[in-house]
Amino acid sequence: MARLPRLIVPGQAHYVIQRAHPAATIFRDAVDRASYLEALQQASADQRVQVLAYALLDEEVQLLLCPPTREALSRTMQSLGRRYVSAYNRRHGTRGTLWDGRFRCGVLAPGAPLLAALVLIDGASAQPEATSAAQRLGRTRPGLVTDPPEFWRLGNTPFDREAAYGHVLAQGLPPDDAARLRHAALGGWSVGPPEFVAEVATNAARPAWPRPRGRPALSR
Questions:
Q1: What does the alpha-carbon distance between residue 109 and residue 13 come to, in Å, rounded to a whole number?
Q2: pTM reported for the whole predicted model
Q3: Which of 7, 161, 195, 215 lies at 20 to 30 Å from 20 by C-alpha?
């Protein structure tokens, strides 16, 4: 079966996962993570892509990105990959790619799915420099990350929002919700109410969620 075209919807949040090559470690220390964030800031600014969250893990990168056009997301990830891998190889005296194939992404509906992705990504590591949680909780100066409306609705003041978000992060996501988000990102699907998924499928001219397995039921 031919591979489906990547599902990208301009103006919507995309949960992006890029995995490390089995023999590679993406980040060896905080300096590498700072280098990646610098490359991400440059690449996203060039394409006017909003960065809503990030998690820089040894085995994979997780991003929440909102592109203005279909092409902007792919161009951002291509530019980011080239910039960071080049800097990484120069610093560590290595050669070759860090990535295990192309990046994967899923489209998220506004509201609960987007907020769940924020929590999943920001809660992916306890290291302050590894995720965008520190900025969202007011522990670092504002910078790369843009807070979406879902975050602003958590409270009327910065203190209220930070406290509410800290509580949500501490609770974490139910395992089924986390698995659904990762399944969507790795499979190239969408997450949201049925009408959102149907609209994405219509506009993309391809399925937006896996069809049920097996043969269709016979009509009576």
A1: 7
A2: 0.92
A3: 7
Q: What is the pLDDT along the chain (220 residues), one digit of tens a residue?
A: 457 788 999 999 999 999 999 888 999 999 999 999 999 999 999 999 999 999 999 999 999 999 999 999 999 999 999 999 999 999 999 998 999 989 999 999 999 999 999 999 999 999 988 999 999 998 887 789 999 999 999 999 999 999 999 999 999 999 999 999 999 999 999 999 999 999 999 988 888 888 765 443 333 3
Q: Are strands 13-19 and 104-108 parallel, antiparallel or unpaired?
A: antiparallel
Domains of the chain, first to last: 13-193 (3.30.70.1290)
Which residues are paired to 56 by β-bridges?
61
By the 8 A CB rule, do 162 and 137 touch?
yes
How far apart are the C-alpha atoms of 75 and 209, rounded to whole Å? 25
Confirm if 134 and 47 have CB atoms less than 8 A apart.
Answer: no
Alpha-carbon distance 160 to 65, whole Å?
25
